[in-house]
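note to self: dont lose this again. the chain is below, predicted strucutre after it. 316 aa total, dont forget to put it in the shared folder this time
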Amino acid sequence: MSTTRSSLSTAEIASQPVCWSRAVEALPQHTSALPRPGERVAVVGCGTSWFMAQAYAVLRESGGHGETHAFAASEFPEERGYDRILAITRSGTTTEVLDLLDRVRGLAPTTAITAAPTTPVTKAADAVVVLDFADEESVVQTRFATTALVLLRAHLESDGMLPAGVRTVAEAVEDARRALAEPLAPAWLCAGQITFLGAGWTYGLALEAALKMREAAGAWTEAYPAMEYRHGPISVAGPGRLVWGFGSLPAGLVDDIEQTGGTPVAASQDAAGDLDPLADLIRAQRLAVATADARGLDADRPRNLTRSVVLGARDA
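---
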């Protein structure tokens, strides 16, 4: 198996504990640009950024910070009123995000979180949070997305509004180091299919994990809310297939999966010990790269993908 084919992704994944800590250190200079308590907020993005938006929306609203909805930028319901629109875009050039920010200009304050300080989004949004230290060379997003979510999570924590049961960012950073050090189980690399499950804010992480496996390795992956798994998706479970839960799997589900011959995976139930769900996403990222390498693919430059989706004349 090659260990160097996807070297950019490997290095960027490994840098996440450092990036997360830097995001916490940078929080004071960005607080004024982030959603205020009580604001009705829409969070938008595309692809990975949309999944991070979903995770943050649940964390913010369930923590009591204010009503929060997440949308793919292309599906934003402009007839709704919001106190603030928060856009997440690594490249700062994504067509759907820029078009949306243009259309809502003057209707509500807008903030963009980006890795690129000299791109069109810095002029399209009213306020900009730049996380350039988390930018990436790889086409596949890993550290920027998680670092953006850590910044937003740290903001909730600083206001005392993390939901019950969600770990502090400092604890998540330590868990991230463990997620990087723990060997991947050989059976995971041989899996013919993986279904990722989440609940609440971790459903967005499940969607992102499935996307990483598809992007980097062309793997057959799916993602569902954990309690929905029995309502149809369990039909694909079987020998050589994984069901990966972010956090603990629902009561009885491990037995149900094992009865199919499938393999349940949850950080609370395996050798890694209990991990923060965002740290567990690092394990899924690592698996995506390792699977790509095993298949002779380059996870840094997946087929049919580019760093940013820029549509012709921004009107396609």
